[in-house]
Amino acid sequence: MPTPDFILELREHIGHAPLWLSGVTAVVVRDDEVLLVRRSDNGAWTPVTGIIDPGEEPAVAATREVAEEAGCVVTPQRLVSVHVTPPVTYPNGDVSQYLDLTFRMTWVSGEPTIGDDENSECGWFPLDDLPAMSDEMNYRIGTAVENAPEARFRT
Fold first, then answer.
1. CA–CA separation, 26 and 19 (whole Å)
2. How far from 38 is each of 13, 14, 102, 103, CA to CA, in Å?
3. Pairwise CA distance, residues 35 & 125, whole Å
4. Is the dihedral angle over the CA atoms 122, 128, 133, 137 positive or is it negative?
5. What's the rounded Cα separation, in Å, for the pair 143 and 148?
6. Which portions of the chain are predicted below pLDDT 50?
7. Do 89 and 97 touch, CB atoms closer than 8 A?
8. According to the model, what pLDDT value does residue 21 have?
């Protein structure tokens, strides 16, 4: 489901006005590989990302998103980064900004398979040979792979 129902309901009231949302990025690491998906809307390669449902625990949301979007079972290892994204204006005029919580996730089982229409491809990529990605996504992967003991905060 590309847009959660609770957001569609909010948009009925606020139109295209800026909407502040909490999101997760799940950087799934398996040995020297990372799980990536190719977004259907813009063709960009990214780790699995998603919106946290109301009342949902962030680590649970990250785990759920990986299962939904890539068909893999994962467990959260730790929070690696907390930051605010720049505002995003979608083709329909909606504006959103996200508090992103990036998690390093450990692969448990399953091979990547497309689980919904949000992505067109998914797979494992060697950390030393990643496809071209935005600086933002490289940052998120970098913080997870670095695996420092403390989470990063942008200041």
1. 22
2. 32, 30, 18, 19
3. 6
4. positive
5. 8
6. none
7. no
8. 96
Q: Which residue has the tokens 């980064």?
A: 81
Q: Which residue type occupies 20?
A: W
HEC profile of the chain: CCCCHHHHHHHHHHCCCCEEEEEEEEEEEECCEEEEEEECCCCCEECEEEECCCCCCHHHHHHHHHHHHHCCEEEEEEEEEEEECCCEECCCCCEEEEEEEEEEEEEEECCCCCCCCCEEEEEEEECCCCCCCCHHHHHHHHHHHHCCCCCEECC
Q: Specify the pLDDT at position 110.
A: 97
The sign one gets for the Cα dihedral 116, 133, 41, 52 is positive
